[in-house]
Design brief:
- It is a single chain.
- The chain is 30% helix and 23% strand.
- It has 7 helices and 10 strands.
- The strands form 2 sheets. The chain has a 6-stranded mixed sheet with strand order 6-7-8-3-9-10, sandwiched between helices.
- It starts with 21 loop residues before the first strand and ends in a 6-residue tail after the last helix.
- Bound molecules: adenosine-5'-diphosphate (ADP) and magnesium ion (MG).
- The site of magnesium ion has 3 residues, from helix 1.
Length: 271
């Protein structure tokens, strides 16, 4: 299942969620014990403002997914904490919703029914129906409500997955390489869609991506995880404020320069 589905506190309005600020405070995650113990994340500390889009870049295996899982309460840090608004995350957190690289839709359900799975508990049938209809329209699937996942393209399935995550009214939207499996053109369309969606449903967004251009196109700020030589595991090695309001010119010289410099931080030669 793509979304994290515990019940919302009773009485929470089913319409829109307010974007919530979050902070990672001295987050550390080690796996294993004794000789097999290894530290994946070390002393990760950063704040994300309510409604901000923050992209996370870093080499494969450096702990990006582990970081998102800690925010959702799907994984417990070995030390440190994640605080959403004023409350530390302890166990699966209803304030977050997750979408992954694969849509993870239930194949026997229609797209409409898959999106409805994301609705918060306690949402009335009438409210739920209206919300699903609105989300189908938001992600351009209003004519495919009754289709099953195998009857639509990968990009459409991914749009349904995004709609399912939004159905929760998340204060924090966690996206783990959400467009990584899509072809280049569909990926660009999805990036534009995400910007449109963010204007209408302004959650705080943590976007893990391996695509530097995607980070530059979508994020207010980018953090790069890597090993800084100060100990085992990954920590933040660079933070970049991305200039310019969105949508940004994909051909801008300023972004091209930043792209080269970020690739260098990631240890990839830009030429
Ligand atoms: N439950 C687990 N048990 C042991 N090792 C894990 C577990 N989850 C993640 N890891 C390890 O943590 C490291 C980081 O994983 P991950 O967060 O998936 O990296 P990324 O998303 O940056 O590619 C990997 O070496 C992975 O094997
Ligand atoms: Mg990952």
């Amino acid at each position: 299942m793509t979304t994290v589905l515990p019940s919302r506190p009773a009485g929470t309005a089913p319409g829109h969620a307010a974007a919530l600020p979050l902070s990672f405070r001295g987050l550390q995650r080690s796996f294993g014990a004794g000789a097999t113990a290894h530290t994946v994340l070390r002393d990760v500390t950063f704040d994300v403002a309510a409604g901000e889009v923050l992209a996370i870049l870093g080499p494969s295996g450096c702990g990006k997914s582990t970081l998102l899982r800690a925010a959702a309460g799907l994984d417990s840090p070995s030390a440190g904490s994640v605080v959403i608004e004023d409350t530390a995350v302890q166990g699966i957190d209803a304030r977050c919703a997750f979408a992954f690289q694969e849509p993870r839709l239930l194949p026997w359900h229609t797209l409409q029914a898959n999106i409805a799975i994301g609705l918060p508990a306690g949402c009335s049938a009438k409210e739920g129906k209206a919300k699903v209809a609105r989300l189908l329209e938001l992600v351009g699937l209003e004519n495919f409500a009754k289709h099953r996942p195998r009857e639509v393209s990968g990009g459409m399935a991914q749009r349904a997955s995004l709609a399912r995550a939004l159905a929760r009214n998340p204060g924090v939207l966690l996206l783990d390489e959400p467009f990584g499996a899509l072809d280049a053109l569909t990926r660009i369309r999805m990036q534009d869609l995400l910007l449109d969606v963010h204007r209408v449903e302004p959650a705080t967004v943590l976007l893990v991506t391996h695509d530097v251009d995607e980070a530059l196109q979508l994020a207010d700020r980018i953090i790069v995880l890597g090993n800084d030589g100060g100990g085992p595991g990954a920590t933040i090695v660079r933070t970049v404020e991305v200039p310019g309001s969105r949508p940004r010119d994909r051909a801008s010289a300023e972004l091209a320069h930043l792209r080269g410099s970020l690739l260098q931080t990631l240890g990839v030669d830009a030429h």
